[in-house]
Amino acid sequence: MSPQAPQPSAELLAEPMRSRWSASVYDASHRLSDAEVETLLHAAQWAPSAGNSQPWIFFVCVPGTANHDRLVANLSRGNSGWVPRASVVFVTAAHVRSGEEDDAPAFSDYALHDVGQAAAHLTLQAHAMGLLTHQFAGFDHDALARALDVPATHQLLTGIAVGLPGDPADVDERTAARDHRDRVRKPLAEWAFGGVFGEAEVADSQA
Ligand SMILES: Cc1cc2nc3c(=O)[nH]c(=O)nc-3n(C[C@H](O)[C@H](O)[C@H](O)COP(=O)(O)O)c2cc1C
């Protein structure tokens, strides 16, 4: 069973939102099939986007491949203990500018929104397939963008680690403890406004 039971106020959500959480202990011996990886990418592919602009790029980083080596070499210290054990890691980028020049017009005003949404769809598809996920941004973006040949029209954004739960005994104590951290959220009153900005009129049974 997952070390993270659904939290109060998540209990009424539909699956897989209800059970999603960011796991850090992965089974390093598990690999996804090519078909499973493709299904995850199809989830991102069918996300909505402004004007159907689909401004996303997903780099696929499977352990043992050059892309995985490129990613692992550029992880932050905090992420280097757990990310490499995931079965696959996707690294996202957004098509932000229509030309390479500094003053080139935006490709889409909503590119970052759309890539985030595609990442969310992939994440939820993974949980629906019985997998765990953990999104992260702790890596050297400039160095990884260079290593992946990302053109100036695109902005490297985040990673999404996907895999199966591992044995906490196989990782260091700090990594194992990450899976038992409290998951907390701001109350709705701080960010759901029924009136003008700051005017919380939305009922929050948890407040
Ligand atoms: C854009 C983004 C960047 C994140 N960066 C990191 C990271 O570098 N390292 C990490 O361990 N977790 C990272 N996280 C995971 C968040 O800390 C986590 O989603 C948040 O604490 C909520 O926990 P939950 O996903 O279990 O609900 C990131 C999440 C997002 C969406």
Q: Features of this protein?
A:
6 helices, 207 residues, 14% strand, NADH Oxidase, alpha+beta, globular, 4-stranded antiparallel beta sheet, binds flavin mononucleotide
What report would you give on this structure?
The protein is α+β, with helices and mostly antiparallel strands and 207 residues long. The chain has one domain: NADH Oxidase (3-Layer(aba) Sandwich). Helices cover 26% and strands 14% of the residues. A four-stranded antiparallel sheet has the order 1-2-4-3, sandwiched between helices. The longest helix is centred in the middle third of the chain and has 18 residues, at 111-128. It starts with 33 loop residues before the first helix and ends in a 29-residue tail after the last helix. Residues 21-22, 78-79, 135-138, 158, 183 line the site of flavin mononucleotide (FMN). Flavin mononucleotide binds next to helix 3 and strand 3. GO terms for molecular function: oxidoreductase activity.
Summarize the structure.
This protein has 207 residues and is of the alpha+beta class. It has six helices and four strands, in the order H-E-H-H-E-H-E-H-E-H.
Mean pLDDT across all residues, rounded? 95
Distance between the termini: 29 Å
CATH topology heading: NADH Oxidase
Number of strands: 4
Q: Give the C-level CATH assignment.
A: Alpha Beta
Order of helices and strands: HEHHEHEHEH
Rg computed from alpha carbons, rounded to a whole number of angstroms: 18 Å
Overall body shape: globular
Q: Helix/strand/pairing class, anyone?
A: alpha+beta
Proportion of residues in helical segments: 25-40%
User: Approximately what portion of the residues adopt beta-strand conformation?
Assistant: 5-15%
Query: Main sheet, how many strands, which sense, barrel?
Result: 4 strands, antiparallel
Looking at the overall shape, the CATH architecture is 3-Layer(aba) Sandwich
Q: Strand sequence of the main sheet, in spatial order? A: 1-2-4-3
CATH superfamily: NADH Oxidase
Number of domains: 1
Count of helix runs: 6
Attached small molecules = flavin mononucleotide
Domain Nitroreductase: 18-61, 74-163
Protein name: Nitroreductase
Family: Belongs to the nitroreductase family.
GO molecular function, one term: oxidoreductase activity
